[in-house]
Specification:
The chain has 265 residues and is mainly β. The chain is built from two helices and 19 strands. It holds the Pfam family DsbD_N.
């Protein structure tokens, strides 16, 4: 089992000094104040050829972005709007992420509506060519009000979000769990139209401390999409899985379907 903290440590030990030009640049797109009072901004990661960065559930070989907001002011909450990622296979390793560029919209909810938002945050992202290495950056900006000047890069990312299960024609999604020595094996059965020839299902737990393996994915003779993954909590023991805490994402052919919840049979 690999935890995010262990991966981060291994990547830190392997990180090069980047004496040559950096393989990635990170900028903050300031965005605009929304009609609901929140502020839409974005993190932009621009990658050199051959490099990639990672989605929120990157697989065993990657590190999802982490942001420390503790020095920021007037931020009550942050919601990330992840654009559709790619399934990237290198040898026997499968990761989920982005090549060339990631524009990650983030909706900032102010503690004091109407006042400027002060962003003073540390960002850690994993980037990879042959091996995964961490890249640190500082986000520093004052985000004021106003709805004018909506950034086309942010708008394009927001237009490329995963589809809901309803929009993609998901009929049903149900799960079964089986106890293992160190956790559980979760099997999801999804009745939905095929997205493409090489469908991948990513299974996520609500608790980020629970490690989830890469899911095996297949279409049954009846046409249902079946995916199974092992879920291992920090204490390495079987546990009760709540269907509302399971999130399924189906990926294929440049599309993604986001399924929230998976009732257990």
């Amino acid at each position: 089992m690999k935890s995010a903290s262990l991966l981060a440590l291994l990547c830190a030990l392997a990180a090069p000094s980047f004496a040559q030009p950096r393989p990635a640049d990170v900028t903050l797109l300031p965005g605009w104040r929304m009609e609901n009072g929140n502020h839409m901004a974005a993190i932009r990661v621009t990658l050199s050829d051959g490099w990639k960065t990672y989605w929120r559930a990157p697989g065993d070989g990657g590190i999802p972005p982490e942001v420390d907001w503790s020095r920021s002011d007037n931020i009550a909450g942050v919601t990330f709007h992840w654009p559709v990622p790619q399934v990237i296979r290198q040898g026997n390793v499968t990761t989920v992420g982005y090549k060339h560029e990631l524009v990650l919209p983030m909706e900032l909810e102010p503690t004091r509506p109407g006042e400027p938002i002060r962003v003073d945050a540390d960002l850690l992202v994993g980037i990879c060519e042959e091996i995964c290495v961490p890249l640190e950056a500082e986000l520093d900006a004052v985000l004021g009000g106003g709805t004018a000047g909506q950034d086309p890069a942010i708008l394009a990312a927001l237009a490329n979000l995963p589809e809901s299960g309803e929009a993609a024609g998901v009929v049903t999604a149900s799960c079964e769990s089986e106890d293992l020595a160190d956790g559980v094996r979760l099997t999801a059965r999804i009745e939905m139209p095929a997205l493409g020839p090489d469908e991948t299902v990513v299974i996520e737990a609500a608790d980020p401390a629970i490690w989830v393996s890469e899911a095996s994915t297949d279409r049954t003779g009846s046409g249902a999409l079946v995916a199974a993954a092992d879920m291992v909590p920090p204490d390495g023991k079987p546990f009760d899985v709540a269907g509302d805490d399971v999130r399924l994402t189906v990926l294929a052919d440049g599309r993604a379907v986001d399924i929230r919840g998976c009732p257990l049979d």
